[in-house]
Amino acid sequence: MTTSPDSSTVGSTLVKRGLADMLRGGVIMDVVNADQAKIAEDAGAVAVMALERVPADIRRDGGVARMSDPLLIQEIQATVTIPVMAKARIGHFAEAQVLESLGVDYVDESEVLTPADEEHHIDKWAFTVPFVCGATNLGEALRRIGEGACMIRSKGEAGTGNVVEAVRHLRTINAQMRRLHSADAAELAGLAKDLQAPLPLVREVAEIGHLPVPMFCAGGIATPADASLVMQLGAEAVFVGSGIFKSADPVRMAEAIVEATTHFRDPSVVAKVSTGLGAAMRGSETATLEQRLAERGW
Amino acid sequence: MTSVGVLALQGDVREHVAVLQRIGVTPVEVRSVAALVGIDGLVIPGGESTTMARLLVTSGLRAPVTEMLAGGLPVLGTCAGLIMLARRILDGRSDQWSLGLLDIEVRRNGFGRQVASFETVVEVAGVGPVAGAFIRAPQVVTVADGVDVLATHDHGQGPTPVLVRQGHALGCAFHPELTGETRIHELFLSLV
User: Fold this and answer.
1) B119 is annotated as an active-site residue
2) ipTM score assigned to the predicted complex
3) Chain A: residue nearest B93 by CA?
4) Whole-angstrom Cα distance, residue A27 to residue A237?
5) Does residue B114 sit in helix, strand or coil?
6) What is the mean pLDDT of residues B75-89?
7) Contact A100/B133, CB-based, under 8 Å?
8) For a designed S-S bond to A2, which of A205, B19, B68, B123 qualifies (C-beta 3.0 to 4.6 A apart)?
9) Is B185 a catalytic residue?
10) How many Cα atoms within 13 Å fall on the side-chain side of residue A61?
11) A62 close contact with B: CB closer than 8 A
12) Among B76, B153, B149, B79, which residue's Cα sits nearest to residue B109?
């Protein structure tokens, strides 16, 4: 038995993407206080997203949505043993620095908050803490990965309880990846130009057939069957925002979505956990929305 | 042909499946009791131990898995899998249970939060240097007699065990499955 000399490296791409790998097959739940965080952990969440208002309330209240108060994040960190994520505004690298100094496990550079920079996303390579970013299509996903994102989530339309946009985004990303995977080498430069994505990442996707980082799904998941749907469409884990704590019975809804995400290929399990679950969040028709959050970021 | 189950309730199942395929073993993803039939060993992957513990209960797998491990089924646990195999869990949830096959105490996230996650090279007895990723990794705090320590890592506070074996159970604090490494799984196969 030998002790290795300590030549260890923190913040490498491997360990940043690696935490996302560990969350695969799980549910990440939005929580606004320590009590909700406890409910989420009890229900089997793999991580929580600490924020002051769930997207449905941000949508209702309007105003500028910013990073959460560090006190809220610290209370949640003190309450649960699972990873704690938090959101920074698009381009607001100072908020991200604060979140990193708090020891947050993943930073979500999120369109749910009001963007701070209309031209630049955060240079995520500069951080030790890993980042997740939203995407509506493959080009957007690869631009974020090119900036250092270690996890992609399809954006969906947060706070609506309507899964239609999440499905659109997942299907778009999948179709564009299939196109790359079947392209010949000479086509890739043109496809990279069309996608407005870095050519090396386009080549990588063409070769491996999937994103080089885990692809999760967010925005509009409100029922166990929604979770099963997006997992079958290729999501590797799900974020549930307003869908749990805006439902009639958050404890049961949280447990049910966890079960449905694990057993997404088994309709009998999804049926069982959906039975007598009570009302899901009310939801809204995305065609009538005044503000489309998915259009934030580019 | 040898078939090894990978507990597939949550976590980095795909990476373990890929390593097993590379070393010529048939992997079986285990989400239900039916999938346990005929396996020669079991891998408990990385992920969240609290989530896995809950899903083991709700899927009805806890009792049969406990019984098979007690009956001598070889098992490899990495990271969360190590926590699931430990006799005692420190800094876990107050109600957190484990399979208790390794007579060790582990501290969850013993090396710190994600910003402290690291990769390093670990010297494994009888194997050589192994690349390992420690991601919110558990730290083995105490080891009882009868537990073999196959590797340690000194993270500035003295060496702590990172690969331990007791009987047919092998527990690893890091993720050999993320670094293209196959030798830890081959070591595990020698128990199968």
Assistant:
1) no
2) 0.96
3) A81
4) 6
5) helix
6) 97
7) no
8) B123
9) no
10) 14
11) no
12) B79
Nearest CA in chain A to B95: A42
Whether the pLDDT of residue A5 is over 70: the answer is no
Contacts of A238 (CB under 8 A, 6+ apart): A27, A28, A216, A217, A218, A221, A227, A230, A231, A257, A261
Higher pLDDT: A263 or A60? It is A263
Cα–Cα dist A134/A211, whole Å: 13
List the end-to-end C-alpha distance of chain A, in Å, as a whole number: 52
Q: Pairing mode, if any, of strands B148-154 and A3-4?
A: parallel
Q: Which residue has the tokens 């939801």?
A: A283
- Out of B54, B129, B135, name the one closest to residue A18 (CB): B135
Q: What is the mean pLDDT of residues A117-143?
A: 97
Report d(CA B67, CA B96) in Å as an integer. 19
> Closest partner residue to A41 among B50, B118, B121, by Cβ?
B50
pLDDT band at A2 (very low <50, low <70, confident <90, very high): very low
Structure tokens, A67:
């990073």
Number of other residues whose CB lies within 10 A of the CB of residue B92: 21
- Asked if the model's pLDDT at residue A295 lies above 90, the reply is no
How far is B44 from B86, CA to CA, in rounded Å?
A: 12
For the beta sheet containing B128-134, the strands, ordered from the edge strand earlier in sequence to the opposite edge, are A9-10, B118-124, B128-134
Which of B79, B96, B114, B123 has the highest number of chain A CBs within 10 A, making it the mutation to test binding with A? B114
User: Tokens representing A116?
Assistant: 């701070």
Across the A:B interface, residue pairs with CB atoms under 8 Å apart total 157
pTM above 0.90, yes or no: yes
With vertex at residue B77, the alpha carbon angle to CA B76 and CA B80, rounded to the nearest 5 degrees, is 170
Chain A CA closest to residue B120:
A8
Comparing CB atoms, the residue among B47, B58, B152 nearest residue A22 is B47
A102 inside 8 A of chain B by CB: no
Spatial separation of the C-alpha atoms in residues A12 and A84, rounded to whole Å? 19
% helix / strand / coil in chain A, to the nearest 5?
A: 45, 15, 40
Integer angstrom CA distances of residue A222 from A155, A157, A283, B139 = 14, 12, 8, 37
